[in-house]
């Protein structure tokens, strides 16, 4: 599959939209595409091109015959990052298509697993490039400027992810120089913009962290300036609060904590959102499947191809409470679970602990509400799901059986809660003790269970306050693909080998610092067309532990 990032062609959504109700506003989500030559220079076309970027978050990247059931979009990338941490054990199963990432095998440049990740990101970058090329700011209307601003935000999301995933940072499993004798520390990925020529793409090197940071910042600044013109209100598209949230993530990556703190607060204030309540989080029908609760999310509708597959979509892989999906196979399913050690560390008075099945006989046993399937093979999911199984992500409308309802959900790309934790961690780096106060305020205001004993308070008594903030952020954002970045940034080890670990044997690794597999490999097919990448590869992390 020889495909160069400069030559990928993508369509833009122009028709076949449908109306859905998210509970707050009625929104339109296109599901199919038109060819590039059908796009005219108009505000409608610019809007269609922008919506195509949303649509491509939930379409296939490599799998023409749809046999690779990890190929279903951005949610799958999030899942990959999560199973590479120590937070999400998956039951050992012949049905688990994510086992290579879990077992750290086949992670080198020649495997389809990395090809999926690489192709997904570059296809989305090129979608943004097309819009930016078609609508230069100097000749754009205000409406078009809004779409341009959102395209810059989409592109910044993709490059910020790639920069953090592909940047080589030291590990305990691989070392520099690489096999070609080159030190690739802090190299990220090539930069391809709407102005990159085909000739330039054939000799386009990985750029340094500094150069990539400069480029991403330029995208974010362009987004901040122009996204205020965006007339679309849907949270399936980025707005100014999402741009500020991306700025906060960006400055955390660079360990510029004063700016990270500033922009996290800007995102909180601009969003005008409150953190999700206990009722929001534990709802059996709306638990983490409703767009209106978040700064930015992705919305699926029943007409989406990935929904129509029944089993190759977010609900299938992330919800343990369905009668049709992968995660809820009655016998031997790849259930999504929380790490047992992590679960035990959560306070019983924290309502978030009820998003996972409590072990029998423990304090919270019986305090989580489970769905019941009309299919007698499944019945009440709480009677047979294993301890620590997740019920965070519920099927649509709480329906575990009708795929058209269950899989037509939203999943979060950015929540305001993340910004509270970024603000707290950044503050603690800037001035010891200030982050502790922010963490305690957040936990006591938003995360104590409604039935917690009177006078109950969360107190951060940890010696390492940053570690405690990161832990509570891991609990908050479990399953949302963000923990990977904190582990890699802070050079944190993972340990899946402790007594009582619920990671299956082939995934029980223990590292002394960030895992080697967190430096993703650029694929061979890209090097075939881009000479500047040859000899500048990240070492293959496969089976180094």
Short characterization:
This protein has 545 residues and is mainly alpha-helical. It has helices at 43-55, 74-83, 99-103, 112-134, 142-166, 198-201, 209-226, 240-253, 257-271, 278-282, 305-308, 314-318, 340-345, 403-406, 416-430, 434-446, 465-476, 483-489, 524-529; strands at 17-21, 26-30, 296-299, 410-414.
| Average pLDDT over all residues | 92
Q: What is the straight-line distance between the termini?
A: 30 Å
Largest sheet, spatial ordering of strands? 1-2
Discrete helix count = 19
Shape: globular
By DSSP, the count of extended strands is 4
Order of helices and strands: EEHHHHHHHHHHEHHHHEHHHHH
What is the strand content?
Answer: under 5%
Q: Cα-atom Rg, whole angstroms? A: 22 Å
What kind of sheet is the major sheet? Answer: 2 strands, antiparallel
State the helicity in percent bands: 25-40%
Which residues sit in consecutive blocks of at least 5 with pLDDT less than 50? Answer: 1-40
* Classification by helices and strands: mainly alpha
